[in-house]
Amino acid sequence: MGKRKSSIAGVTLIEVILVISLMAFMLVVMAPNITLSEANEVSSKLGKLSSDFRSAYDSAVLSGKTHRLGFDLGQGTYWLEMTESNQVKLGASVLDRELTPEEEQDKSEKFDQEFERFVDLADRAFPDPETGKDIVPESPVLQAKAALKGPKWKLVETGEWGERQLGDILMFRDIQAFHHVSKISLADARDKAIAYIYFFPSGYIEPAFLHLAYKGKDGAVNEQKSPYTIVINSYEGYVDIKDGYVEVSLANPE
Question: What residues contact residue 81 under an 8 Å CB cut-off, 6+ apart?
Fold first, then answer.
C-alpha cells in the first residue's frame, strides 16, 4: 500500500512539472521575443498567483473569517490578511483609491483619540435619588465602537503564507475590484497604488481583475511584450488567465 501512495505522489509531481513546462513552451511560441528562462519564470509566477487566490479562498471558507489579498503595485508585492470582525461589508461606498497601511494606521489612531470623549461622557456617574448610590450609564455608542471603527486586519503569516514578490520580469499594471470606482493604476497612483480583493467565509470572492505586464527599463511597462489579464471567478476560487490586455466588466466578468 505504501508503494502505491509513493507512485501516486510521483505522478502528481510529474504532472505539475509538465504543466509548468507546457506553459513555458506556449509562452515562447506565442511571444518569441522572450527567452525560455523568462518563460519559465513567468509561467511559475502566474501559476503561483493562481494558486494563491485559491489558497486565500480556502482559508476564508475553512476558518470562517473574512480575508483579503493586498497588492502593492509599486513594489510588485502581495500578501494575505484576515480579520476577526464580522462587520466587513462591501457596496456601501466605493473608493477612488485604497488607504495605504500607514494611512490606515493613522486613521485608526485618530478614531481612538476622538472616541475618548464618548468614553469620558459614559464614565460620568450620577447618584440614584432613592439609594444615593452612583449609577454608571451603559452607552450604546461604546458598545458599537467596533462596528464604528471598522475591522482590524492582521497579516496571515504561516508556513504557507508570507509576503509574495512578483519578481523581476512581471509587474502589476492595474487592478480593479468591485468596491473601486475605477482601475487602480500604477501609472496614476504611483507610491499609493494599493489594492485589496476580499474573500468571504461564505465562499464568495469580490469580483475583480488584474492586468500584469512585462517590466521595461526603469520599471516602466514594456509595451513590446503582450500583457496578461487575470479574472477572478467569484464563486469557485479560481482565476482565468487571458493573453493580452482584455477589458473586463465587473458586472459580467466572464
Answer: 67, 68, 69, 70, 153, 154, 155, 156
In what helix (H) or strand (E) does residue 79 lie, and over which residues does it extend?
Answer: strand 77-83
**What are 44's three cell numbers?**
511559475
User: To which H or E segment does residue 239 belong?
Assistant: strand 239-243
Residue 152 pLDDT > 80:
yes
How many residues does this entry show for the chain?
254
Q: Residue 239: name the closest of 69, 59, 23, 52 by CA.
A: 52
Three-state SS annotation for 98-142:
CCCHHHHHHHHHHHHHHHHHHHHHHCCCEECCCCCCEECCCCHHH
Q: Residues 194-244: pLDDT tens digits?
A: 999 999 999 999 999 999 999 988 778 888 888 999 999 888 888 999 999
Picking from 8, 43, 53, the residue whose alpha carbon sits closest to that of residue 205 is 53
* Nearest partner of 158 among 59, 27, 38, 21, judged by Cα: 59
> What domains, with CATH codes, occur in the chain?
41-87+151-243 (3.55.40.10), 104-149 (no CATH)
Strands 153-155 and 77-83: antiparallel
C-alpha cell at 125: 456617574
How far is residue 226's CA from residue 30's CA, in Å, rounded to a whole number? 9
Q: In angstroms, rounded to a whole number, what is the distance separating the alpha carbons of residues 173 and 185?
A: 6
Give Cα 112 distance to the centre of its chain: 26
Coil, helix or strand for 152? coil
pTM above 0.85, yes or no: no
Alpha-carbon dihedral sign for residues 220, 221, 223, 224: positive
Query: Within 13 Å, how many C-alpha atoms sit on residue 133's CB side?
Result: 4
